[in-house]
Amino acid sequence: MSDLRLSLRFRIIAVLAAVLAAGAVVLGAAAWHSSSLAAQQAYDRLLRGGAVQIAENVYVQGGVVTVEPPVSTIATLADYDLVFYKVVDPRGIVVAGYEDLVSDADPVETRAGVVLEDGTYQGQPVRIATLARQIDMPGTNNWSTIVVAQTTDARRALARDLTLKALGVIAVMSVLALLAAAYAVTLALKPLTRIEREIASRRPDDLRPIEAEPPLEIRNLVQAIDDFMRRLSERMAIMQRFIADAAHQIRTPLAALDAQVEILIGTPASRRKADTVKRIHERTAELGRLTGQLLDHAMVIHRKDVAVAAAVDLNQLAKGVLAKAVPLSLPREVDIAFVPAEQAPIVSGDAVSLREALSNLIDNALRHGARSRLVVTVGADGDAAWIEVADDGDGFAAPLAEFTRPFAKGPESSGSGLGLSIAAEVALAHKGELALSRDSTMTRIRLVLARS
């Protein structure tokens, strides 16, 4: 039942059914009111006509008011309900009919025409018509009063019959409207079914845009799904390329390490054995650095879309990274300097990713660039802030773009080529760039970041 309640078709039909039910109740009440009014008006015409005909048969004979009730009129009224009447002469004496039949009509109004009112007679609800007729009777006010009453059973029966017929029409129309709505909803949801079938029939690696033409109402939803699949496809392509390249890169030092171990096993204790152990140590260190950079690269790719941006002080960041990134001992003498900005630039970004990017730039400069000097500078310019790593090495043998692709490296490089790629990914994630410049003495790589 929970799946049914979550169904869009069920929800739409349920809402329409509720609306139709509420409408049927309102229409039913309106039908009952209209039917009651129509029955009242129809029987009131008969009752008014009966009162007028009785009044026309009232006359004075021998000084006495006499009435000859029209039998046909009374019979017509009696065909539907019980009929009671009373005729009172100008002296107030009842000359015909039921003496206890009482009317509350205003005498002045009855002289102008028939007055209709509701009342009760002999314990039954009745409709009363009262009319005054002027006659010539000396010594009196010359007005005779005629009262005719009719029970209301036939009125209610007619109103009930009309209401039931109207309710029947309302019920049929409501059912037809609900069926039509259900069919319309089914037709309207067919494009969703086509989209569902198209997605369900695809292979897991098929992330092409949805080909089925969506209705206007869900076009934005389908576009969002297409955009999500595009981003997922790009991420999967990056990860697949990364995994393939990483497998290739790790295979090389592992093979070299295995060869050195075999040499070590087959070599007697000698000077060559010490050299082999040294090479094994170097290969092991290289493999450790490669593994660390692989993990850093994967972390940077992951954090690009999920990390929450926070305010980062570039002076503090660069100072901390430089202190940790420079090893305690270097194979050569290198003069290391840090030049902070006068006013610390603040950027909104991921401190962890920025730290990794700068650490890789510094490590890259120390291992493959700097001969005797390394300078880390922090600055800001307009809407951008930057951290620059400069060294007195020979620079790059190719454009920087060639080195910022994963595992791209120079022909004489012994590294993995991941350091600059990590920095480039971080710069791109922070709406910045990695810029290279060279003067007569220094090679400069600048990590440019947007400040807003």
Automatic annotation (TrEMBL):
Classification via SUPFAM superfamilies: ATPase domain of HSP90 chaperone/DNA topoisomerase II/histidine kinase (SSF55874), Homodimeric domain of signal transducing histidine kinase (SSF47384)
Compartments, as annotated in UniProt: Membrane
Highest taxon of source: Bacteria
One Gene Ontology molecular-function label: phosphorelay sensor kinase activity
Enzyme Commission number(s): 2.7.13.3
PROSITE patterns per UniProt: HAMP (PS50885), HIS_KIN (PS50109)
Main subcellular localisation: membrane
Record keyword Transferase present: yes
GO cellular component: plasma membrane
The reaction(s) this protein catalyses: ATP + protein L-histidine = ADP + protein N-phospho-L-histidine
TM segment ranges: 166-189
Protein name (Swiss-Prot/TrEMBL): histidine kinase
Species, as recorded: Bosea spartocytisi
Phylogenetic placement of the source organism: Bacteria, Pseudomonadati, Pseudomonadota, Alphaproteobacteria, Hyphomicrobiales
